[in-house]
Amino acid sequence: MPRVETRSPWTTFAGRLMAVMVISLLYQIADGQTPRPTFRVVAIVEAGGIHKPFVDAAKTWLAKESALDGFTVDYIENTDKIDDAFLKQYQLFIQLNYPPYAWTPTAMAAFIRYIEEGRGGWIGFHHATLLGEFDGYPMWPWFSNFMGGIRFTKYIPTFVSGRVIVEAPSHPVMKGLGSSFEIASEEWYTYDKSPRPNVRVLASVDESTYAPATTIKMGDHPVVWTNEHVKARNIYIFMGHHPELFKNSAFTMLFHNSILWAAHS
What we know:
The protein is an alpha/beta fold. It has helices spanning about 15-30, 50-70, 85, 105-115, 140-145, 250-260, and strands at about 40-45, 70-75, 90-95, 120-125, 150-155, 160-165, 180-185, 190, 200-210, 220-225, 235. The radius of gyration is 23 Å and the shape is globular.
């Protein structure tokens, strides 16, 4: 019977390539090395006040999320450092309950370029639509237009729960969220008008589901949207007052999806 010679897989090009990769991985493990992060995030946060518990919970959650998804997060508490060179370091800017006022002129100009030219992505939460005259600062017209041309009017001080209706289930940010999800005990901002004509609404709250009932309503009430008139991938998420949100799997999935989509990861 003739002898059939078989080639070791390690003698093929693919085999040799695999061997190099295995050896490289073993060296990394031996040296205690970990793969480099795929992108960098900067989050501007409120240093204190009523939203600090939410910010603290967000930091804890982001520490775990960044380890799983391979990114890093730096935190700032004001806009003093923000300019073009600073923002160039980051692929994603998270406005973690920081309002759209009290920004330095340099920061405002750099942020506008970052968004309009698509230099990075953006996720804003809750306080990011506190648009109007607050704490002695004027309205920032550009930011109002970025958010769909809206102005803050009021909120529900008694806090109510409500059902959020997913309007764009095919959008990557809404992946896995189903047709609706519940948000407990939020203060639901209202605005002088719906941003819908100027943005793409991804989700809205069904005001008929408010519990307990309240007369503070705005009719068409978007709560998650993206402005497709700028180059940057951007998501505004209204919810963001209580730290308990990070125990809500729908909220954390929305946040997770938003990070990966906005950062082009």
